[in-house]
What we know:
The complex is a heterodimer.
Chain A: H1 26-29, H2 50-66, E1 81-86, H3 92-103, E2 107-112, H4 124-132, E3 138-143, H5 148-155, E4 159-165, H6 171-185, E5 192-196, H7 203-214, E6 218-222, E7 238-240, H8 243-247, E8 252-255, H9 271-278, H10 282-285, E9 293-295, H11 308-311, H12 318-336, H13 341-345
Parallel strand pairs in A: 1-2, 1-3, 3-4, 5-6, 5-8, 6-7, 8-9
Helix pairs in contact in A: 2-6, 2-12, 3-12, 4-5, 6-7, 6-12
Chain B: E1 3-5, H1 7-25, E2 31-36, H2 40-55, E3 61-64, E4 97-105, H3 109-119, E5 126-134, E6 146-150, E7 157-162, H4 164-167, E8 171-176
Parallel strand pairs in B: 2-3, 2-4, 4-5, 5-6
Antiparallel strand pairs in B: 1-8, 7-8
Amino acid sequence: xxxxxxxxxxxxxxxxxxxxxxxxxxxxxxxxxxxxxxxxxxxxxxxxxxxxxxxxxxxxxxxxxxxxxxxxxxxxxxxxxxxxxxxxxxxxxxxxxxxxxxxxxxxxxxxxxxxxxxxxxxxxxxxxxxxxxxxxxxxxxxxxxxxxxxxxxxxxxxxxxxxxxxxxxxxxxxxxxxxxxxxxxxxxxxxxxxxxxxxxxxxxxxxxxxxxxxxxxxxxxxxxxxxxxxxxxxxxxxxxxxxxxxxxxxxxxxxxxxxxxxxxxxxxxxxxxxxxxxxxxxxxxxxxxxxxxxxxxxxxxxxxxxxxxxxxxxxxxxxxxxxxxxxxxxxxxxxxxxxxxxxxxx
Amino acid sequence: xxxxxxxxxxxxxxxxxxxxxxxxxxxxxxxxxxxxxxxxxxxxxxxxxxxxxxxxxxxxxxxxxxxxxxxxxxxxxxxxxxxxxxxxxxxxxxxxxxxxxxxxxxxxxxxxxxxxxxxxxxxxxxxxxxxxxxxxxxxxxxxxxxxxxxxxxxxxxxxxxxxxxxxxxxxxxxxxxxxx
Lengths: 346, 180
């Protein structure tokens, strides 16, 4: 499915006899549907309930259709201002948020670290208060420090969306991963998901563990012993350093980038050796289920965590993840746009 | 809780409307039905079935969710955002005659939103409006082309359309708001 192709599921269901207005998946069918998020901010997956996650995914399904229209814009966030505050370099997440904001008709501006007064020594809280004084409705922030979003949420009235904070969480990435899995497998509960790579430095891993376990998946994590965080077993996942064990019979294999820029020390002898022991090759993929999907949050290091043939293989959904990212971020922006009213209604 | 239309009356009204559509458009060529979620969608499908029985031709049918176009979207004093459902229009609306279908025509604000939403899909040759019930009290200059039943109401009443596909039975009832 290409980024621009019409989603086949959006085809009319005529002449089907009955209308099913309620959410469409086995995952959501068993749960009581809810209609709103009870949060002002999205700082992580951890505070969300399974019902809230399903609401975001269902809303994203409706948002995805907008991307296939001739005019890819709806007036939902007209007059709302969204500030994208990126203290770390990011291409795909920032672009994805900007496209999502524009498709909802929000006014957006993006501030990159290099051109901001942070380089002149301003603290994060002061930067936030300065921006807050200009009364934006939402702030999307990426920051190298874990918990930066929580600090912002305490001092700001605006809704804060965490676009990645240090080694803590990256909630919209986990949501788009779940959306992509659900789109391909029609469910998340009961699937075996193997996550292989740099577990220690990955905020994507933490958000994904919270999300996938809340929705009932069986999660395996795999990497060199030096890159397995000691507390990971307490999050309800199986940890191993044997890649074949993790991949055996998996429905989903998710690779994580080796984050050399965060590594202060020698965690493994060489990238070449890492690829030999952990790299996802076609031979290793064959141990998974025949209909396995291969995911990667990007940016990819071909020949390190993933072989080129696998990244470009028929089971790869890596580009679907990117296009689904826009729909998921539209859903989050829309659902949080009620602002503090979300909490008042709770 | 007075029932103002039962299943038979609803069926007869929709059959009559289908004939009016054929008469007014001299057939069903380049025609399409778009139901407004939730209850406009099954009504559109029923009318499409009747049109097929009358003319033998399939009329494409779509579903439109207008939530993101509502004029009160960000004006709620308290409360979560309305739930967004998917829009499914699998045909090009360019140069077609589109019949918008809704269950109850009231202030006209839903139709205003639906017109905006539809225009984002292309440039239809014409848009006509079908409502099962017209209860009056318009706040915008909007008028239906096909009406199942004109139902004079007071502002303190609410009109509920129930359809088999959504609610398990067909009926239209009028209730006092206070009783809700």
